[in-house]
Amino acid sequence: MTLVQMQPRPEDANPVPRTVAEVMDAAGPQVCDDMSVEVALAVMAAARTGRLVVCDQDGQCAGLVTQTELAAVRDSSDYTDRVRLRDILGDHGSFASPVTTMAEAEHAMRARQLGALPVVDEQGSALGILALSR
User: Fold this and answer.
1) I need a surface site. Which of 1, 19, 47, 59 has the fewest CB within 10 A?
2) Is there a contact between 108 and 3 (Cβ–Cβ < 8 Å)?
3) Strand bridging mode 116-120 / 126-131
4) ∠ CA(42), CA(46), CA(47), 5° rounding?
5) Which positions ≥6 away from 16 have C-beta within 8 Å?
6) How far is residue 119's CA from residue 21's CA, in Å, rounded to a whole number?
């Protein structure tokens, strides 16, 4: 028996990820949309993360908030301790499916100027986060 050594083809050496599922990060901390901004900032500090996945009462992903966004809300003149995450989510309703192609996801994120995008399953549960590298 003769051992045949195969050389990888150039396109196989550094395969380009084809779907979001291949490159997404873990979802990280998930919090309920009725959480206050102050508590959310404390959760972020404790978890040492810059973003949180926000879920509704049914556990479905409602969006993503960043530390920068929350700090801006807290520092605004309109801020009160009654402001909840659901009040500031705004147009954070963009999501990706794990089978979304990377090209589609990157295009959508750049068009909407999003640095990160939650990845959700068919039921709307958060599976991970897709973050653009700058």
Assistant:
1) 1
2) no
3) antiparallel
4) 115
5) 102
6) 8
Instruction: Say if residues 130 and 119 touch (Cβ distance below 8 Å).
Output: yes
pLDDT value of position 4: 42
Distances (CA, A) of 15 to 11, 82, 109, 119, 132: 6, 48, 22, 21, 18
Q: Tell whether the model's pLDDT for residue 18 goes beyond 50.
A: yes
Q: Which amino acid is at 97?
A: S
For residue 11 the two structure tokens come to 């396109």
Q: Within its chain, how far is the Cα of 13 from the centroid?
A: 28
Task: Report the pLDDT value the prediction gives residue 97, as an integer from 0 to 100.
Answer: 93
Both structure tokens of 128: 């991970």
pTM of the model: 0.80
Burial of residue 93 (number of CB atoms within 10 Å: 0-12, 13-18, 19+): exposed
* Strands, sheet with 51-55, edge to edge from the N-terminal-most edge strand: 30-32, 51-55, 61-66
In which element (H, E) is residue 38 found? helix 37-47
Q: How far apart are CA 74 and CA 113, in angstroms?
A: 22
